[in-house]
Fold:
Amino acid sequence: MERLQKVIAASGIASRRKSEELIKEGKVLVNGKVVDILGTKVSPKDIIEIDGKILEKEQKEYYLLNKPRGVITSTSDDKGRKTVIDLINTNSRIYPVGRLDYDTTGVLLLTNDGEFSNILTHPANNIDKVYLAKIEGIIKKEQIDMLKNGIKIDNAKVKASHVKLKKVNQTNNTCMVEITIHEGKNHQVKKMFEAVGFHVEKLTRKRIGNFQVNDLKSGEYRKLTPKEVQIVYSYKKSK
Structure:
């Protein structure tokens, strides 16, 4: 037995918060009866309807993609640009876990499991998101300390849990910096560097939790193993 809002969110058709709103608004039926009480538990045998449509029980799918540059992290694009969904061969209604900018590359997970997605994206779970940034200029210790101690972007304080200068190119006046964050705000890494005076030329996400692209080439993907999926669920259980 699982909570109704969790089952709806896990189907991928709505976030957990939106699922709760649908229930409270009386738009969800279980076995033909309106259920508007949050926390109501249902079994796999129960028939769930939302706005008159039966909730299909999709098989859960999980993918790890090495996102290429120039691809939108979205399920669709009104400008007709290629999305990360176009790169995955599946008929299921999967969606990306979090976002990577149009010009950002690297690790991206996709699924139709809402709870899996919530665990990875919720900052309270302290899951590492590791990026490698090529920035204009040479970063100094005081700027690294600012990133680690916390800075304000978009009226919110954010900080890096780890920052390391990896490589310096004095000729081009650029450097490579590895930065680890736990949040996932819009353009967060770029805005953090901008806040301490640096423009990001290139950005790659190297790791989320234990997930890395390893030998996957740009644009390639693979399915996650059952063990990898269970590790993600353990992130929440351990908190």
In short: The longest strand covers residues 200-208. Residues 124 and 182 are 8 Å apart (CA to CA). The helical segments are 4-10, 16-24, 114-121, 141-149, 188-195, 226-237.
